Amino acid sequence: MNTILDTLTQLSDKTSRTNTPKINAKWFEIGFKPDIASMQIITIGTGVIYQNQLFTKLLTDTKLFELLYGAAAKENVNFLINLISKVSSYADLKQLSRNLFLSKPKFIAGETINEMLDRSFNSVVTSPTKFGQIYIR
Prior knowledge:
Helix 2 runs antiparallel to helix 3. This protein is 47% helix and 24% strand. The chain has helices at residues 4-19, 63-69, 71-86, 90-94, 113-124, 128-135; strands spanning 23-32, 42-50, 53-58, 100-102, 106-110.
């Protein structure tokens, strides 16, 4: 027969097993500097570093850049996003462009890489569609 202490111990063991994340990694913001001379940075995505591998989630709609800065800026952002998606390490990403801003990597934990990318992306990237609906008429 189980005592109350045995039952509480079993419950505690189950809780600690289910709450422990499967993956511990680092995440960072990826920003675009439209004008290197200014301090303006627009976040265009996030990255996760896990076991020395780089995973990124980037904007897919760059219409906002065309509305704010013109067609050339939109093409520059699209070109940069394409380059970022091909880079395989944080060190290489840091060397990619002077128009690129990377925040200092911070701790993140979760069940999957995609879940961590989605969570970090949604916390720092404003959807251009939402931005457009609110501010651009």
